[in-house]
Amino acid sequence: MPTTSLTKLPTRAPADYHKTTTLRELKKLRQELIGLQDRLYAENRHSVLVVLQGMDASGKDGLIRRVFSGINPQGVRVQAFKEPTKEELAHDFLWRIHQQTPARGMIQVFNRSHYEDVLITRVEGLITTEEARRRFTAINAFEKLLQQAGTTVLKFYLHVSEKEQQERLQERLTDPTKQWKYEAADKQKANQWPQYQVVYEDVFQHCSPTTCPWHIVPADQNWYKAYVVALALRDALVKLNPQYPENPKTGS
Amino acid sequence: MPTTSLTKLPTRAPADYHKTTTLRELKKLRQELIGLQDRLYAENRHSVLVVLQGMDASGKDGLIRRVFSGINPQGVRVQAFKEPTKEELAHDFLWRIHQQTPARGMIQVFNRSHYEDVLITRVEGLITTEEARRRFTAINAFEKLLQQAGTTVLKFYLHVSEKEQQERLQERLTDPTKQWKYEAADKQKANQWPQYQVVYEDVFQHCSPTTCPWHIVPADQNWYKAYVVALALRDALVKLNPQYPENPKTGS
After folding, report:
1. Which residues of A touch B44 (CB under 8 A)?
2. Backbone φ and ψ of B218, nearest 5°
3. pLDDT of residue A55
4. Residue B225 near residue B219 (C-beta atoms within 8 A)
5. Is residue A167 part of a domain?
6. How far is A111 from chain B, CA to nearest CA, in Å?
7. Percent above pLDDT 90 for chain A
8. CA distance A153 to B117
9. Chain A residues closer than 8 Å to B145 by CB
10. Which residues pair with A108 in a beta bridge?
11. Do A148 and B142 touch (CB under 8 A)?
12. What contacts A23, CB < 8 A, 6 or more positions away?
């Protein structure tokens, strides 16, 4: 992928998308997803890994709710990656990630992921640029391994504008249903906006092979980003074209 | 590594090695290993992965006993990899392996390993040569990831002659302490000797970067192979030079 300047990429839906019609489309997509997931699970041959990254308050949690609610939870698992534990830090950075990759038939959602190990670690100065480069290589090999084992890897960056992010973080302080999400660290991280954009751009440059690209999703409007992710997931599942297996007893 | 013709490599100790003196050396090495392992564990910074491969009856179990007995088991773990379970087969071939890699401070021994997935699978015709090549690439990237996280990876192939193997398999049928190891499959596998040599040679050619070479260990004599592995492990630990950390309370 050529160098990406995030500031030049849109954070809002194209002008011809409207909330009401898009939400209607999203509802249809969700119905399709329910059927496709059921066949994926029954066929037990392929799997899907959805990687969600984005700045704090870019709406990862809400997106998961909007896209995956209604799908049979037996076939969908969400894994949130927080600060690594002591045991996790005693291993290579992909150790805890690899354990959570989807089995055949499953859709696995990563709320944050192995990419944190080349994002926050760099902004906080915990790793050198050289180490980040080595990790990029390891990440590309890892995702290729998953793909070769039958996993479709979909990577989404929820791209919010700095302004929108500031407003959302502010809301966390005042909305009683959102206060629990507020951490003192949020304020500090918000101030590191430019640093995060730089390391994200580096990720998009080095970890976006044509076989496993990043989707940069305009994310200022919740309805639009949910639609974009649901659409990409639907298309990926349609491509896998999962089929109910024949009943071995009846042969039909 | 250039093409290796296994049949040209020795399966017995060089003429100037004698059993009694070598066993005395092995005893000394084990004492050194005990001290080095204790410091490795205390320092909690590096780890060691010992990968053991070899034909059936090449003496992997006995070697583990001879080299690692006496070392504090708190710092040494042995993992035997058998036929994959249904759950393991539902993931990429490195999934179950990655979970067993050593934490900092630990020595981990793999009795068989991820290499089975490019050995028995090929002899049994379960994967194509093309798939084997892809797995070689994945294995090299995986081992590099471990090394970059501070793990020393030592790979040993226990090289027994076909004649010695046949005798040992025969012994399994008559020695009451060894009968439990005999499987009907052994006989079949013994007959596949030439096929195994070919796929092993392919592994040594493709998965032996200078930073992570295979050690081909002459393995017809149990005393010699234990000595060779203990020596390589001792040297690797000396290179890591683990130190007891300063006592944070006394500063000494």
Report:
1. 90
2. -55, 125
3. 92
4. yes
5. yes
6. 20
7. 81
8. 23
9. 92, 94, 138, 141-142
10. A49, A77
11. no
12. A223, A227
Residue B94 structure tokens:
């490195």
- Angle, CA of B145, B241 and B141, to the nearest 5°: 10
Closest chain B residue to the Cα of A130, Cα to Cα? B148
Structural domain includes residue B22: yes
| Alpha-carbon gap, residue B114 to B103, rounded angstroms | 18
Spatial contact of B112 and B58, defined as CB atoms under 8 Å apart: no
| Domain that residue A165 falls in | 25-240
Task: Provide the percentage of residues in chain A whose pLDDT is more than 70.
Answer: 94
- For B27-36, the pLDDT digits (tens) are 999 999 999 9
Residues on B contacting A at a C-beta cutoff of 8 Å: 44, 87, 90-95, 98-99, 101, 103-105, 131, 134, 137-138, 141-142, 144-146, 148-149, 151
ipTM computed for the complex = 0.89
Q: How far is residue A23's CA from residue B75's CA, in Å, rounded to a whole number?
A: 56
User: Where do the DSSP E strands lie in chain A?
Assistant: 47-54, 76-80, 107-111, 151-159, 214-218
Instruction: Tell me the CATH number at B109.
Output: 3.40.50.300
pLDDT for A186 beyond 80:
no
If residue A86 lies in a helix (H) or strand (E), which one and from where to where? helix A86-89
Read off the pLDDT of residues B85-137 as tens digits, 9 standing for 90 and up: 999 999 999 999 999 999 999 999 999 999 999 999 999 999 999 999 999 99
* Helix, strand or coil, per DSSP, at residue A47: strand
Residue A78 predicted with pLDDT over 80: yes
Task: Summarize pLDDT for B180-233 with one digit per residue, the tens.
Answer: 777 777 766 667 888 999 999 999 999 999 999 999 999 999 999 999 999 999
Phi first, then psi, for residue B101 (nearest 5°) are: -70, 150
Indicate the residue of B94, B145, B151 with minimum beta-carbon distance to A138.
B145
How far is the alpha carbon of A90 from chain B, nearest alpha carbon, in Å?
Answer: 5
Residues from chain A that touch B146, judged by Cβ atoms under 8 A, are 92
pLDDT at position B252 over 80: no
Query: Given pLDDT bands bounded at 50, 70 and 90, which one contains residue B3?
Result: low
CA-CA-CA-CA dihedral for A180, A181, A185, A190, to nearest 10: -140
* Domain presence at residue A12: no
In a domain, A112, yes or no: yes
Q: What is the domain count for chain A? A: 1
Partner-chain contact A103 B92, CB within 8 Å: no
Long-range contacts of B143-146 (CB under 8 A, 24+ apart): B143/B207, B143/B212, B144/A138, B144/B209, B144/B211, B144/B212, B145/A92, B145/A94, B145/A138, B145/A141, B145/A142, B146/A92, B146/B49, B146/B101
The whole-angstrom separation of Cα A75 and Cα A95 is: 23
- Chain B residues within 8 A of A99 when measuring between CB atoms: 95, 98-99
> Nearest to residue B206, comparing CAs of B118, B125, B85?
B118
